Amino acid sequence: MANKSASLADQAYENIKTNILNLTYPPGMALTEALLCSRLGMSRSPVRAAIHRLQTEGLIVSDYYKSMTVKEITDKDINEIYQLRELLEGAAFKLIFTTGRNEEYSYRIEEKVVRMCAAANDLYEWEVADTAMHMEIVSIFDNDRINRIYENNLSELIRMGQYSVKNGMHIPKTNENLKKMVRHMRKGDYEKAYAILTADHFGTGKDSALKGR
Questions:
Q1: pTM, 2 dp
Q2: Long-range contacts of 4-11 (CB under 8 A, 24+ apart)
Q3: Is-contact 167 207, C-beta < 8 A?
Q4: Which end of the chain is more exposed for a tag (fewer CB within 10 A), N or C?
Q5: For residues 98 and 124, what is the distance between their CA atoms, to the nearest angstrom?
Q6: Which Gene3D superfamilies does the UniProt record give (predicted)?
Q7: Contact of 120 with 172, CB cutoff 8 Å
Q8: How far is CA 104 from CA 6, 36, 89, 94, 185, in A?
Q9: Domain boundaries, position 41
Q10: Among residues 55, 70, 85, which one ends one of the domains?
Q11: What is the SS3 assignment for 70?
């Protein structure tokens, strides 16, 4: 019985989290146990356990009166996340070239870009694939602490990325630009490759996300 309850709690957690990440439950949406129980067809116990986990992760917040909402995405959140991305990925991208691993990483990144192209009609899946592409870039550091920083911010990166697309970033164009970036990497052209990464993922993404505010 305990295992079944734990399993239901896990199911509730995954379902609610996915709906938050794919913006079915958008930032600022009010949530109640009754609403979630009804939508999931579950009792309060597993739903309550799922809510607690999501509150711990910061995706659901409660105010003084204990009313629950999906965490808002603030301008400060957007600026901090994209600043973090630019600092880490900028250094990582340069390291890929200075260590002579640009051809190797061109194939590794291309694999992620292929996944992005395959998910072009599914915004959530495309953003998940895009985030995997960014994690591939920082993998050059072989640094578990940096990996954890990215993993701890995955939820926000995925939600903010969807905001970028909904407010200006065009998926087909971004996919084509990333293909060009891969080709420049394969040729060893750091400047042209990095210019594409900067334009599509350090500037446009942040500006587009902010426009959605």
A1: 0.79
A2: 5/45, 5/46, 8/42, 8/43, 8/45, 8/46, 9/45, 9/46, 9/49, 9/50, 10/50, 11/40, 11/42, 11/46
A3: no
A4: N
A5: 34
A6: GntR ligand-binding domain-like, Winged helix-like DNA-binding domain superfamily/Winged helix DNA-binding domain
A7: yes
A8: 43, 46, 17, 14, 9
A9: 2-70
A10: 70
A11: strand
Rounded to the nearest 5 degrees, what angle is found at the Cα of 26, between the Cα atoms of 113 and 126? 10
Mean pLDDT of the chain: 88
Residue 151 CA to residue 141 CA, distance in Å, equals: 15
Residue 137 token pair: 């870039």
Secondary structure class of 47 (helix, strand, coil): helix
Provide the domain count of the chain: 2
Residues 35 and 110 in one domain: no
Q: What is the pLDDT of residues 66-122, one digit of tens each?
A: 789 999 988 888 888 888 889 999 999 999 999 999 999 999 999 999 999 999 898
| pLDDT score recorded for residue 209 | 44
